[in-house]
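hi support,

uploading two proteins for the ticket. first:
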Amino acid sequence: MLDLENMSLKELQDLRKQVDRSIVDFEERKRREALAAVEQAARTHGFSLNELTGAKINRRSGKMAPKYANPEDAAQTWTGRGRRPRWIQDALNGGKTLADLEI
């Protein structure tokens, strides 16, 4: 058993850091175990956990290269994903096509 009364402040602080790290490690290990159990239960019923929770997996990482540029201001670009920028919508309303705006 530890004799906390006879430990120095430095020893007590080091002990606290070790305990804090151990608690975080324990909680993370338990979280991973719980997640694995839930994923296994979902698979047993013929589903993935993402299907049951509605979570989407982002398979793409990093930035995408722009696909379209504003002919009036080349600094304004758009990848073709997400909401259309106003300049794209204005160009389309003005009779241009997306092909006209491609880089």
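and the second one:
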Amino acid sequence: MMTEKEGQREDRQARPLSPCILICTLDDDKCCLGCGRTLAQISGWALMSVAEQWSVIDDLRARRPENDVTIAAEDGD
């Protein structure tokens, strides 16, 4: 499925890029202050399916749309 957002296309069949923005500091709830992922999401990212990774991206966008830095996918990580 392709979606259109601000003129950018997303290929939901390919892995999204990691949302990491290299500000890797956890808050008291074990959520990263940089990307917003939980510690479990960070540690499990590479083992997640494509659908699971996109689900994390969607959750992050819903919670923190002003920090939307993930766009498309290449090989993922």
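thanks. also noticed: Confidence is low (pLDDT under 50) at residues 70-74.
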